[in-house]
Amino acid sequence: MKALSIKSVQRLLNRTVALSLSILVASVLASSVAQAQTPEYPQQQAYPQQGYPQEAAPQPRCYPTAPTWFPPPGAEPQCETPARPATRRGLLFLPYIGLSSTVGQYSDGYFPGLRVGALLGVHVGPLLSLNGELGVDIMNPNAGNTYTGTADRTEAFFDFTLSPLFHFGVPNLEFAVGPKIGWFNFVGSSRASDGGRGPSYTLDYNGHGIVYGFTAGAFFSIGRMALGGILSFTGRSFSGFHCSGSGGWVCSSRPIDTKLISFSVAMML
């Protein structure tokens, strides 16, 4: 009985060893097979990392290098530059003040005088405004060169004209040019003496006629307001004249037609 038990134990041990060896061999084979299969996965992961950027890189890089003068359709309005300042609408008000100088015959009979006035009108489109103008020229006569013995003279012209303007320009700079034509009134007075040999005499005179000319201006835009200057030419032709005085002094039946060039600072609203 003892021998049999020893033999049975030996068989059990032999079977256990054989089973353990089989399991060990199976695990070694399984690990070797797994190691043989796992290297393929890094190659598949490395292949897209090396090849994918090379294939996809040209597409995103081509857009930044596109010429700046060929923007996408959505960006075209942002690149457009306006050909002229923003269109003004509604009423136009243009006051001005400056100096005027007489030109032509007998221009040396006047020093530069004061010119003030304003245009008031309405825009009828992006390029045209229809305006009425009131202009006042306060003359500064050199009495000694005009009338011998005259001690003091004052004269002024009041112009009422139709003065349309054509508007054009570039961003932040606007130009306005146009003709003017209308009616003027003239008033004046003088205190005269006969070279100190007699009493002084007072003369009052007035007249009227046709006024014509042109205006050209440049203005820098500051929001809805614009500041600048205007250069204007004004010609006048008398159609009527009246003079009254004392002491038997006789006035000329018609004064000299005047022509003025003036420059004024102006504001456009």
Give your account of this protein's structure.
- The structure is a single chain.
- The longest helix has 36 residues, at 2-37.
- Strands 1, 2, 3, 4, 5, 6, 7, 8 and 9 form a nine-stranded antiparallel β-sheet that branches.
- The model is unreliable at 40-48, 60-65 and 81-86 (pLDDT under 50).
- The protein has 269 residues and is an alpha+beta fold.
- A hairpin with a 2-residue loop joins strand 7 and strand 8 (225-245).
- The chain has helices at 2-37, 40-56, 58-62, 76-79, 143-146; strands at residues 91-103, 110-123, 128-141, 150-162, 165-170, 173-193, 200-222, 225-245, 259-268.
- It has five helices and nine strands; from the N terminus they run H-H-H-H-E-E-E-H-E-E-E-E-E-E.
- The protein is 25% helix and 50% strand.
- It folds into two domains: 2-59; 91-268, Porin.
Notable traits:
50% strand, Porin, 5 helices, 269 residues, 25% helix, rod-shaped, 2 domains, alpha+beta
How much strand content do the residues show?
Answer: over 45%
Distance N to C terminus: 132 Å
Which parts are unreliable, with pLDDT below 50 for 5 consecutive residues or more? 40-48, 60-65, 81-86
The total of helices stands at: 5
Count structural domains: 2
What is the CATH-assigned architecture of the largest domain?
Beta Barrel
Integer-rounded radius of gyration: 51 Å
Instruction: Average the pLDDT over all residues and give the rounded result.
Output: 76
Q: What is the CATH fold-level name of the largest domain? A: Porin
Shape: rod-shaped
* Major β-sheet annotation: 9 strands, antiparallel
